[in-house]
Amino acid sequence: MDRLTIAGREFSSRLMVGTGKFSSNAAMQAAIEASGSEIVTVALRRVDIENLQDDMLAHIDREKYLLLPNTSGARDADEAVRLARLARAAGCEPWVKLEVTPDPYYLLPDPIETLKAAEILVKDGFTVLPYINADPVLAKHLQEAGTATVMPLGAPIGTNKGVRTRDQIGIIIEQALVPVVVDAGLGAPSHAAEAMEMGADAVLVNTALAVARDPAAMSIAFRKGVEAGREAFLAGLGSEKIKAEASSPLTGFLRDE
Amino acid sequence: MQITLNGHCKEVTDNTTVAELLTSLGLDPTRVAIELNQQVISRERFGDTLINAGDSIEIVQFVGGG
Amino acid sequence: MSFIDVIRQYDPQDVRQRIENATGDDVNRALATEHPGPQELMALLSPAAEEKIETLANRANQTTLRRFGRTILLYAPLYLSNVCQNGCVYCGFSAENSVPRKTLTDDEILADAKNLHDQGFRHILLLTGEAKGEIGVDFLENAIRLVRPWFSSIGLEVFPMAADDYRRLIDAGVDTLTIYQETYDEGLYAELHPYGQKRDYAWRLATPERGGEAGLRRIGIGALLGLGDFRLEGFFTGLHALYLAKRFWRSQITVSFPRLRPADGGFQPLHLVSDRNLVQLICTLRLIIPDAGLVLSTRESAQLRDNLLPLGITQMSAGSCTAPGGYASGERHTEQFAIDDDRSPADFAAMLRDKGYDPVWKDWDGLFLSKEAEQAGTGR
Question: Which residues of chain A neighbour B35 with C-beta distances below 8 Å?
Answer without folding.
Answer: 82, 86
